[in-house]
Each structure stands twice: as C-alpha cells, then as structure tokens.
Specification:
- Chain B: It comes from Thermanaerothrix daxensis.
- Chain B: Keywords: Membrane, Transmembrane, Transmembrane helix.
- Chain B: The chain crosses the membrane at residues 17-36, 67-89, 101-122, 128-151, 174-198, 218-242, 254-274, 280-304, 337-356, 376-394, 406-425, 445-468.
- Chain B: This is Cytochrome oxidase subunit I profile domain-containing protein.
- The complex is a heterodimer.
- Chain A is built from four helices and 16 strands.
- Chain A is an alpha+beta fold.
- In chain A, a hairpin with a 4-residue loop joins strand 2 (59-63) and strand 3 (68-72).
- Chain A is globular, with a radius of gyration of 22 Å.
- Chain B has helices spanning 2-13, 15-33, 38-42, 45-53, 62-88, 93-119, 124-148, 171-199, 217-244, 250-271, 278-311, 320-328, 331-356, 367-396, 401-426, 438-470, 476-482, 486-489.
- By secondary structure, chain B is mostly helical.
- Chain B contains 18 helices and no strands.
- Helix content of chain B is 76%, strand content 0%.
- The chains are: A alpha+beta, B mainly alpha.
Chain lengths: 313, 492
C-alpha cells in the first residue's frame, strides 16, 4: 500500500515541476516593482570634490590583461570622479535653455554628427541626427523633471549620473569643451604604470569598491538590490557603520572600479557598439579588473552606467 | 595488502569501478571549485577556501584558470562516455584495455596536475603533466576510432532490427565511429589555437569576444572548438542511451543515418569557420544540427513508447492516465529521454530564439547581458549531460524501489528546477528592467541554488554509500567486480 502511495507521489512530481516553473513566471511579473529610485537614499558627504581634475602625464604604462607596454604620447586632464547627478542636471537645464538638447516624446535628445558606416555584420549605421541623451519618464533615472527644470532626486546629487546614453555622455563633455576618454586614457588613469589589476592595488575587498553584494549601505539585496554610492565614497571613512578603505587610483581618481560602468570614446571600425570600463554596482568582482570592457549600443542607458570626461591639460 | 589490491582492481579494472572513480573525481572537483564563485563567494566561503588551501589566484590569470577547470571536468566526462562505449560495443580486448588505460591515466593526470598548475601557483612541471594527460586522452581517442572501425565483418549486424547497410554494416556503429572520429579531429581543432594562445598565456573566454567585428582564424577556431566538443559529447551520449535502451526497429533505421549525416555536416560547418566558408558556417551548422536532433527525437519516441508498452502490459486497452503512469513509472529510464526533451526549452530553443532575434533584441542589450545567455545556456547543456549520465549510472549500479525513485526523481526535478531558473535568469531582461530585477534575481538564484545543491547532495549520498561499500568485505563492489561481460557491466 505504501508503495502504491509513493508511486502516486512520484508521478505527481513532474506536474509539481511544471507548477514551479509557472510560479517562476509569476514571480518574474511580481518582480517588476521595487526599484532603487523608490527607496530612500542615505545622504553622505564624502568630501571628494567632483569638480576636481587631475593631470595624467604622457609616457609608457602597462595596458590590458597581459600588461602590454603602451606609450601615450600626450598628457591629459581627467575628472577625479564620475560626473554627478548634480553636474548633469545643471548641464541639462543649461543645454535645454540654449537649444543644445530638446525634448522628443519621452526623452531628451541631442544632435550627433554620425560615424562612418562599414556595412560589417551586425553593424548598425550611426547617421547624423538626433539621438537620445536621457529618458524622461524612467523611474530608475536619478533626476526629476517637472516639464521645465531638471533636479537631482533626493539624496542622489553627489551620486554618479546614470541612465545616460553614450550620446548623452558625449554631449555633456562636448558642451563644456571636454571629451570622453579613450579606453587607453581611461586605463592609464585607473591603474597607473605598474600593471596593477585594481586602481588601489592588487586585491579587491568589499571595502574598496561598490560591486554586486558588496554590502555597502546603499544596497539591499532583499529588495531593490544594489544602488550607486556617492562619488568618492571609498575614501577610508566610515559611513553608517560601513568602514571603507581609501581606494583612489595612483593618480588620485575615485570610483575607477565598481559603482558605475564608464563610457569611453573608442569607436571600432565595423562596430557601432560603444565601450564601457570599470564594472559597476551590479558587477561580479572579475569585472572590476581595470582591463575588462563592456559594450552596448550608444543609445543604451541603464542604472549602472555613467561617465567622466577628459580635457587637454 | 590483498584487500587494497582487490579494491583497486575493482576501481580501475571494472567498468563500474572506473565510472565510479570518474564520477567521484568530477563531483569533488565541482564541489571544491564551485565554492569559488556564485553564492559561496558572496557568503565568504571562497575567501576561506582560498586561504585554507593556500590557493594563489591572481586576477589576470582568471580566464586561464577557468579554461583549465572546464577542460579537466570535460575530460572526466569524456572518460565516462568512453568507458561505457567500450563496454557496450564489441571490440578487441586489447584495444578496449588500451583505450581505458590511456584515458584513465590521461584524465587523472590532466585533472590533478592541471588544477595544481592553475590554482596553486605556476609549477611548470605540473603544466607539462597536464599537457601530457591531454595527449594521452587524445591517443585514447585515436585508438577508440580504430577499435570502433565499423567495416570489420566481425561487427556486422546479425539481426535486421537494427539499422544497417545492404552489406550488413552496422549503422549505429558507424554513428559511434563518426562521432568519435570527428571528436578527435575537433580536439585538434582546439589544440592548435590552444597551443598558440596558451604558449604566451594570452588566453581569452570566447564569450568576451563575440561582438568583435573582426576575429582571427584562431579565435574562430576556439569558439568553434568549444561549441562542437559539447555538441559531440551530447551526440555521443544520445547514442549511448540508445544502445542502453536497445534502440531498434524502424525508428532506429531512420535515426542512425540522421545522426551520421548530422554529425558530419555539423562538424564541417564548425571547421568551416576558419575557411572562406565562414559567412555561411552558421547555416551549415543549422543544417547539421537538425538531422542530429531529429535522430534524438526518434530515440525519445522509441524509448517512451517502450516504457508505456512495458508499463501497461497488464491492461487490455490502457487509457491515457495508465499510459502516463507507465511512462513515469521508472524515472531512471524515463529521465534521460525527458532531459533530452527538456534541453530544447533551456538550450536549443533559447539558442534559436537568440539567433533569430539577435539584432532586434539581444544586441540591443549590453554585452554582459548577452554573455549571460551564452554562458548560461552552455552551462545548462553541460548540466543536462551530467544528469543524463547520473540517471544512467543510477540504473547501472542497480538502484531499486524507493531509493531508485527518490534518486531518479530527485535528479530530474531538482536539476530541471535549476536549469529552468537559470534560463529565466539569462532571459530576465525580456520581462524586467535592470532597476527592478532584484526580486526576480533573488528568486531564480535561490531556486538555482536549491536545485543544484540538492542534486549535489544526492550525488554525495550515492558516493558516500559507494565509499562505505568499499569497506565491506563482500559489498556491492565485490559483486560488480565479478562481472566479466563488459556489455552486462553497464546494465542493471
């Protein structure tokens, strides 16, 4: 009798499995709720100045995963932190006022002069026209817009600007006479000349950078997941009981690993994708190694993607 | 001393013993090195393992470590398949012994020294041994091809129930031979670029270069190699399952030519990526994959039909529920075929969907999101292959009654739970945005961990049971060691 009952249970198992898969689907739908933008954000002043710039000298450095000897023949100046929400909303207000950008449907667009098209497999043409800089109605955006004025969401003014496309990053830099760094410029600024894998040195701990499940006060893995940390957060101070290690690059840049992926300017012939560097709050540790790249279509924007600019010294 | 010698003779001299050793080695490797990533890393277990075992994990060497890890696990799986093939198919005793000896020494040396090299500092002697191990496995493959030569009259079919040519050549043996031969050639296809990149240790993971518009021939060869090797392991396992279930009749006669044709065309397509055929290589691969998958479908139809027929013998005219009960009665024989069907939802279906909508959907996502699909779907395929082997192994070692059902359904349900959850995780961007994904991510990762964790616990229980059995004077091992007919060794 017991055997018979057990058989029935066994035969129910495949049905239960399908039930579980259906449940998975429902969970997927129910998951479309809480986001970091809806969560209240801890306000932290890191005392790292987002307006600061630093000069990176010309000369050789060890680039890439295999430490290739590369020489940059020019020096350049790069921002110490990512562009913040405060800085970007200031730009949006100015740029909207003087016509550099305009509103089209539910996004802010600006003109981009286009790239050469090579007709390679999977390549999409980037022709001269308006492209999206930022979405206007995305709840994940770190700013608000009341129809006239852009403003940082509460507590996010000194966080890195996110939900910005490559065009939006390019446009910001161009508006102020700057430019996006090339991949090599970005990497030298991140690791210096000694071939280290992380901006601060040779090992990664949860006190060095903001990455997936790194335990910083801006993340709650049970609800909204990982949030951005204010620029310069990993400066050796303790915030809300979370002790950080001072983790600048050899040239004094902050957040060159983790927090947000950073758009760089490289354009590869036959490829419309744009590259990002540094890993983000949602990355696993291997993606925080300084040579790792990510890429996306230039109109892509996401809550883990930001940028910083360079200018001539 | 005699006692130890008897145990060693069982473990390294009998088919079941050899398979037990390989399953245990892969299980140990998976359990140990699986703790270096995923939830174990988040919980801090990784750091503890690294410190306790004195591992030396330089960040720049991660890709190289992973490549050696994948290869050593794959070598263990290939060894298991080889043990079963050399048991199931008739061949000269000398060749059977030679193949088994070479592949056993090969995979053990490759696994132990390869992992030693990769995770405990770069001891070059270990690297040399790793390469030597892989070389031995290669030669075992060459010998296996010789042993399987289907045009030897001694191996012609004796009953017309099996696919054969007019002359009597066993087409199933031709399918085994074709798969073994193309596996050996495809191993070389990876070994050549492997030597090139490995020599300077400028390794890369294929999923990281997919969007590069220009790839070198060697890069294409690496991408082709990893795809075809997994496909060939899967095809060989399908043939093995067919032999185990005594696949025959009209479906067998349709399926075998499909397997042979599919395997050949599939390989030609993959090898074609380094030739001027590259622009149409994917099309050739699809053309090859289709008949191979149709062959597997024939096996599933045959196998399930047999299960239903056997299980409903007591009924004059069984109804649908009685047939379903008969089908599901034995999870160890139902499971391998079910896993082949399930693979279509979690691997083939996903792959085709991604290929069809690549530019419209998937290439609009960041590369890291696309990479999740790539790594996820081949991890699932590897996992499905492993579960099919485990289900067959459960039957082979004679699990019966309640234990058989618990083991069988446990492996099927929990592995499929994990694979389904991984599939949802890979494709989550279709249904949820980055900023709102955490609840879904938490849920699917939890289900994945529950699924994989339970399968590993089930495997561990079986292995502990078999380990304890080895301490018994007249345990199962002694009984299994007595079996002298190789074909019967791999049957319950």
């Amino acid at each position: 009798m017991r055997h018979v009952q057990f058989s029935s249970i066994c035969e129910m198992i495949p049905r239960l499995t399908w039930g579980l898969f259906c449940l998975l689907g429902l969970l997927g739908l129910s998951a479309c709720r809480s986001s970091v933008a809806e969560a209240s954000v801890l306000s932290v002043d890191t005392s790292i100045d987002p307006e600061a710039w630093v000069v990176i000298p010309a000369g050789p450095f060890l680039a890439g995963q295999f430490n290739d000897q590369v020489t940059l023949t020019h020096s350049y100046t790069i921002m110490v932190t990512d562009v913040t929400v405060e800085q970007y909303t200031r730009f949006l207000n100015q740029a909207l006022a003087d016509g550099f950008v305009k509103i089209e449907a539910d996004q802010l667009v600006g003109f981009y002069p286009g790239d050469p098209f090579h007709g390679a497999k999977h390549e999409e043409a980037i022709s001269p026209k308006n492209y999206p800089f930022v979405p206007l109605n995305d709840p994940a955006s770190p700013f608000t817009f009341d129809g006239k004025i852009f403003a940082p969401r509460s507590g996010l003014s000194n966080h890195p600007m996110t939900n910005v496309s490559w065009f939006g990053a390019w446009g910001y830099c161009r508006y102020y006479g700057y430019r996006l760094p090339t991949g090599l410029e970005w990497e030298k600024a991140a690791r210096g000349i000694d071939g280290r894998p992380y901006p601060w040195g040779w090992d990664l701990t949860k006190a060095n950078a903001n990455f997936y499940a790194s335990g910083d006060p801006f993340e709650d893995m049970r609800t909204y997941g990982s949030g951005t940390t204010p620029v310069g957060f990993y400066n050796g101070e303790t915030y809300a009981g979370f002790a950080t290690l001072d983790s600048p690059s050899p040239y004094g840049l902050y957040d060159m690993a983790g927090n947000v992926w950073q758009w760089v300017s490289d354009i590869t012939p036959g490829m419309h994708y744009r590259f990002m560097r540094g890993g983000s709050k949602d990355s696993y540790p291997p993606d925080l190694r300084v040579w790792v790249t990510n890429n996306a279509t230039p109109s892509y924007y996401g809550p883990g993607t930001g940028f910083r600019c360079v200018r001539e010294p | 001393m005699l006692t130890i010698r008897q145990r060693l003779s069982y473990l390294f001299g009998s088919t079941k013993g050899l398979i037990l050793v390989a399953v245990a080695m892969i299980g140990l490797e998976t359990a140990l090195f699986g703790m270096l990533s995923g939830p174990m890393a988040e919980l801090g277990v990784r750091d503890w393992i690294v410190r306790s075992l004195g591992m030396q994990l330089l960040p720049a060497e991660r890709e190289g470590r992973i490549i050696i890890l994948y290869h050593t696990i794959a070598m263990g799986v290939i060894a298991i398949e080889t043990y079963i093939i050399t048991a199931l198919l008739k061949m000269k005793t000398f060749l059977r012994t030679a193949v088994r000896t070479l592949i056993t020494v090969g995979y053990l040396v490759a696994m132990i020294s390869g992992m030693g090299f990769a995770y405990w500092g770069h001891n070059w002697a270990l690297h040399g041994l790793y390469i030597a191990g892989l070389t031995l496995i290669f030669f075992a493959g060459v010998l296996l091809c010789i042993a399987l030569w289907p045009w030897d009259r001694a191996y012609f079919v004796t009953t017309k129930a099996y696919a054969h040519t007019r002359n009597g050549v066993d087409l199933e043996r031709v399918a085994f031979f074709t798969t073994a031969l193309t596996t050996v050639i495809s191993a070389l296809f990876g070994a050549v670029p492997g030597a090139y990149f490995g020599n300077g240790f400028r390794v890369f993971l294929a999923e990281n270069i997919i969007r590069l518009p220009e790839k070198t021939g060697f890069q294409y060869a690496v991408i082709g190699h990893l795809h075809i090797m997994l496909a060939l392991i899967a095809i060989m396992l399908t043939l093995i399952i067919g032999r185990w279930l005594d696949f025959k009749g009209i479906l067998h006669k349709i399926a075998m030519p499909l397997f042979i044709l599919g395997t050949l065309v599939l390989n030609l397509g993959v090898w074609g990526v380094v030739t001027p055929l590259e622009p149409i290589a994917h099309m050739i691969i699809y053309v090859g994959a289709t008949p191979a998958m149709l062959g597997a479908l024939m096996l599933v139809i045959y196998g399930w039909d047999e299960l239903i027929r056997e299980g409903s013998q007591g009924f004059v005219k069984p109804n649908a529920i009685q047939k379903l009960r008969a089908l599901l009665h034995d999870p160890l024989r139902f499971g391998p075929l079910w896993q082949m069907v399930f693979m279509n939802f979690t691997v083939s279906g996903v792959g085709i969907f991604v290929a069809v909508r690549l530019d419209e959907i998937f290439r609009q996502w960041p590369a890291r999101e696309e990479r999740l699909i790539l790594t996820g779907h081949w991890h699932v395929l590897s996992g499905i292959i492993a579960t099919i082997i485990l289900l067959y192994y459960g039957d082979m070692i004679g699990l019966k009654g309640l234990v058989r059902r618990l083991y069988g359904w446990g492996v099927i349900v929990f592995s499929d739970l994990a694979f389904a959850a991984v599939t949802v995780y890979e494709l989550k961007r279709l249904v949820v945005s980055e900023s709102a994904q955490q609840s879904l991510v938490n849920t699917v990762l939890l289900l994945t961990d529950i699924g994989l964790g339970t399968v590993l616990v089930i495997l561990a229980l079986i292995l502990v049971w078999r380990l304890l059995d080895l301490f018994r004077r007249q345990g199962r091992w002694a009984e299994e060691a007595q079996q002298s007919d190789p074909a019967l060794e791999v049957k319950a």
